[in-house]
Amino acid sequence: MTERVYLFKGFERFWHWTQAALIIFMMLTGFEIHGTYANFGFERAVNFHTIAAWSLVALWVFAIFWHVTTGEWRQYIPTTDKVLAIMRYYSVGIFKHEPHPFRQTSQQKHNPLQRLTYLAILTLLNPLLWASGWLYLFYADWAAWGLSALQLEWVATAHTIGAFLMLAFLISHLYLITTGHKPTSQLKAMVTGWEELE
């Protein structure tokens, strides 16, 4: 038996899809800047990458404001409760058609493993990408900032590592959205806001 619950508000869906589009676009332009392939041309790829990065910063400012004012920031408070059970479910239980050990509600949209993953992205991966990207963007100012000893190659390597980690998250995220009670149910929920919960 399933119950239809409105889980994701309009701004959450807008924020999610806009953020996803900007990140994917930054990956495309970033890997072109890195020399992986040619599409826009180096100079245009740099300009597009920079515009997308500033757009993402603006989106995050609005998203942080929205999360704080609505109280939705509580959805991301980390917990280790049932983490091992959820890890076991995704590695073994799902293939045996076992029930998911976590039940979503409008008060708890993210399971403990998701919360820990988002915490790692917010505290480790995003700072790596933003710090290295900022340094990359303002390379001409390093001497004035007293950063002459810093090597551009180190910054570029750190930024590329961050990009590959974000790509790994994106791939795993795309896989995990197919693990609902139907392969498209979680994707549909992030489009309509309504989730069918067992």
Folded structure, characterized:
The protein is mostly helical. It has a single domain, classed as Fumarate Reductase Cytochrome B subunit. 61% of the residues lie in helices and 4% in strands. A two-stranded antiparallel ribbon has the order 1-2. Helix 1 (10-33) packs antiparallel against helix 2 and helix 4 (112-137) runs antiparallel to helix 5 (152-176).
Short structural summary:
This protein is mainly α and 198 residues long. Helices cover 61% and strands 4% of the residues. It has a single domain (3-197), classed as Up-down Bundle (Fumarate Reductase Cytochrome B subunit).
Task: Sum up the structure in keywords.
198 residues, mainly alpha, Fumarate Reductase Cytochrome B subunit, two-stranded antiparallel sheet, 6 helices
